[in-house]
Structure to design on (486 residues):
């Protein structure tokens, strides 16, 4: 009896791991979409309203809400203090803390950490180009995730279940 | 050191600058050149920032500024918003909280024969703003004919306090006194030096009846002010080209009194060696205030009428 309960538990756990990984693919897409929207809004505030960067971060954070609200508001707050640390470092620190337990890949996190330096570009054209380039890369990744995401999620779930079965065969 | 100035330095520099009160100790300029020593100027005296903190006269013991420190300073100066200062960068300077002016040098980016921006900023010159309240009080009676303020031009070489004097003159005329009612003044602050507006808020006291057009070219500002604010007095700093003077000429006939400054040498050169004649239209001013050279900035040498005769006591 205990053997069968154990076997069911192994199967359920393996399937749950597969589902978790599948969920992360969906979550990753959501994060990338969120970053894209926020960057659009931020770029709009900088380009058309010439708003100071800390205020623009907080305004976009409060107005848009969403999952990035806390990141934007706390970053804006720290910049306002002007404690003698440069934007790139503060941006990096906040990004690392905030995205630590998210579904983004290591490369995606690193790319986002570099984003801070683009905003200190004095030349409007150069800044816009750099941010547009980042946005186009984001768009590509989102499209890719949308196209292959459901397949990947299905694959992870199946792998989880089959992995569980394989384990059972080995053990039993 | 005033806190708003303190905030533009990176942490390391802040620690070394602690204890130096630039305003109290009458420093006029702070210069930061990449890989060069931090230089502090007080009049013509030159000091360096000691690498352990405090000041020194020995260059070898000075703190040498790195390119990164200058880049960081630019971030703080612009409140992490360099993009918002595109126009100022093009002009080569920007004004920070407290009214201090930061001059910039670096790699100039050109586009179609015009300066698009300055990149890789590696040289900074912070000119410390200082209000000298009351420095114009003594000359006010000589500038009035009854209730009317004469068209007045302050003449001196650079660095002798023309702008400081004009700023105080604006405040005095605007606030008025027991003997004279205050006048509505429109200030065209092309280089943000008079009011030193920071995000639209004047950092210097220009009086209670003063309106400021910040960052506006003189050529456009005078008509804008006349149409929108009906000033009794218009104040502008540093008349330069022929066009400026022609515009002043036009506004003199609009019924406004003019307060202005111009670069010139001294009374002798101005009236007797052709200084005034070279600038057609400038003879329309009724009072010429000359500043003393060689001593403290802002000390008045003479006030003359358009014939070169001294008017009133200094």
């Amino acid at each position: 009896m205990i053997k069968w309960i154990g076997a069911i538990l192994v199967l359920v756990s393996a399937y749950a791991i597969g589902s978790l990984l599948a969920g992360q693919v969906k979550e990753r897409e959501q994060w990338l979409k969120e970053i894209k929207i926020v960057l659009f809004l931020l770029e709009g505030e900088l380009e058309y309203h010439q708003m100071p960067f800390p205020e623009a971060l907080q305004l976009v954070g409060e107005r848009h809400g969403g999952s990035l609200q806390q990141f934007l508001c706390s970053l804006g707050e720290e910049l306002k203090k002007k404690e003698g640390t440069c934007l790139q470092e503060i941006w990096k620190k906040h990004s690392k803390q905030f995205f630590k337990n998210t579904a983004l890949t290591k490369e995606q996190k690193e790319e986002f950490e570099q984003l801070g330096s683009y905003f200190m570009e004095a030349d409007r054209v150069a800044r816009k180009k750099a941010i547009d380039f980042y946005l186009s890369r984001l768009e590509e990744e989102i499209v890719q995730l949308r196209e292959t995401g459901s397949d990947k999620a299905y694959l992870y779930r199946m792998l989880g279940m089959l992995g569980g079965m394989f384990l059972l065969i080995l053990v039993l | 050191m005033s806190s708003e100035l303190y905030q533009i330095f990176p942490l390391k520099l802040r620690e070394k600058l602690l204890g130096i009160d630039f305003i109290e100790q009458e420093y006029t300029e702070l210069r930061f050149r990449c890989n060069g020593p931090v230089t502090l100027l007080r009049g013509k005296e030159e000091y360096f920032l000691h690498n352990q903190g405090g000041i020194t006269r020995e260059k070898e013991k000075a703190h040498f500024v790195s390119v990164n420190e200058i880049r960081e300073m630019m971030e703080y100066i612009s409140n992490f918003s360099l993009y918002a200062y595109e126009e100022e960068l093009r002009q080569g300077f920007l004004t920070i909280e407290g009214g201090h002016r930061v001059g910039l040098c670096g790699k100039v980016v050109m586009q179609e024969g015009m300066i698009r921006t300055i990149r890789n900023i590696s040289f900074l010159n912070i000119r410390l703003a200082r209000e000298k309240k009351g420095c114009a009080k003594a000359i006010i009676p000589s500038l009035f004919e009854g209730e009317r303020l004469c068209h007045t031009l302050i003449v001196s070489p650079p660095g002798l306090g023309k702008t400081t004097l004009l700023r105080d003159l604006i405040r005095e005329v605007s606030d008025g006194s027991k003997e004279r009612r205050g006048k509505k003044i429109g200030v065209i602050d092309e280089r943000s030096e008079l009011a030193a507006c920071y995000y639209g808020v004047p950092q210097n006291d220009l009086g209670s009846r003063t309106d400021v057009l910040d960052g506006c070219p003189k050529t456009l500002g005078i008509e804008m002010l006349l149409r929108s604010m009906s000033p009794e007095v218009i104040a502008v700093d540093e008349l330069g080209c022929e066009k400026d003077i022609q515009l002043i000429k036009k506004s003199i006939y609009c019924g406004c009194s003019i307060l202005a400054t111009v670069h010139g040498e001294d009374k002798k050169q101005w009236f007797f060696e052709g200084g005034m004649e070279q600038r057609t239209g400038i003879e329309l001013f009724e009072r010429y205030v000359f500043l003393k050279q060689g001593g403290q900035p802002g000390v008045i040498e003479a006030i003359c009428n358009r014939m070169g005769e001294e008017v009133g006591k200094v």
Remarks:
- Chain A has six helices and no strands.
- The interface with chain B takes residues 46, 50-54, 56, 79, 82-87, 119-125, 127 of chain A (CB under 8 Å).
